[in-house]
Automatic annotation (TrEMBL):
Gene3D superfamilies: NAD(P)-binding Rossmann-like Domain. It comes from Yoonia maricola. Residues 94-229 form the XdhC Rossmann domain. Residues 4-57 form the XdhC- CoxI domain. This is Molybdenum cofactor sulfurylase.
Length: 245
């Protein structure tokens, strides 16, 4: 389906979002944000006029204060361009195992981010709340690992330590971009011993990040989700994924 991609190409002064920020606009929905407010509303309206008129590109420099009545006071340059379809291939595949409190919080935080294409795995369909992501029911989640893309990120947070271990074992036997495992330092120490006994080399085991999240934020599911999301969208983290937390 045809969409219009809006990109912030240049900024000056105080603005809501930085250069490079993008959003997609279809006739019936949007994905992403360039900062909200009147600027975004007018940019969306222009995108939908382009869809109606058949125009493929448009550019504009917009002073936020005089033109939009926004308090930021800076200016932004925008590029509107036709996007035949959303480029799903550019989104990072993210597989989340577990639909408990932390899993739900993670999906709530990560799903609005256009950088990720989420597959959510759990053992029973009734464990999933309504969510606009791909859900996958598997009595044995470790057995679906073989279907994950080789470059996927994985977050493991099921209700069972044995299930978590089986997933770690399966993923270490499969190509991946990153693995994050929920748990304490004690749990991770035990897992390292058991994974080594299963034949995995120390360097490979060290690619699993455990614990996940930012401990300074606390242990509330939403706090864990915020810590994980912040780490995953950090440019430095994206470039050095294969590390121990």
């Amino acid at each position: 389906m045809t969409a219009i991609r809006i990109t912030v190409t240049k900024t000056a002064g105080s603005v809501p979002r930085e250069a490079g920020t993008q959003m997609l606009v279809w006739e019936d929905r949007i994905e992403g944000t360039i900062g909200g407010g009147t600027l975004e509303w007018e940019a969306m309206a222009e995108a939908r006029r382009m869809l109606q008129d058949g125009r493929k590109t448009h550019t504009a420099r917009i002073p936020l204060g005089p033109a939009m009545g926004q308090c930021c006071g800076g200016s932004v340059s925008l590029l509107w361009e036709e996007a035949a379809t959303m480029d799903v291939s550019s989104a990072r595949p993210l597989w989340i195992y577990g639909a408990g409190h932390v899993g739900r919080a993670l999906v709530n935080v990560m799903n609005p981010l256009p950088a990720f294409d989420i597959t959510w795995v759990d053992t029973h369909a009734d464990r999933f709340p309504p969510a606009d992501v791909t859900t996958l029911v598997a009595a044995d989640p470790a057995r679906v690992v073989k279907h994950a893309p080789d470059h996927a990120d994985h977050l493991i947070l099921t209700y069972s330590h044995e299930m978590d271990l089986a997933l770690c074992h399966a993923l270490l036997s499969h190509d991946f971009h990153s693995i994050g495992l929920i748990g304490s330092a004690t749990k991770w120490a035990r897992f390292k011993t058991r994974l080594a006994a299963l034949g995995h080399a120390p360097a490979q085991i060290a690619r699993i990040a455990c614990p996940i999240g930012d401990p300074t934020l606390g242990k509330h599911p939403a706090a864990i989700a915020l810590g994980v999301a912040t780490a995953m969208i950090s440019p430095a983290q994206s470039q050095t994924k294969d590390r121990t937390a």
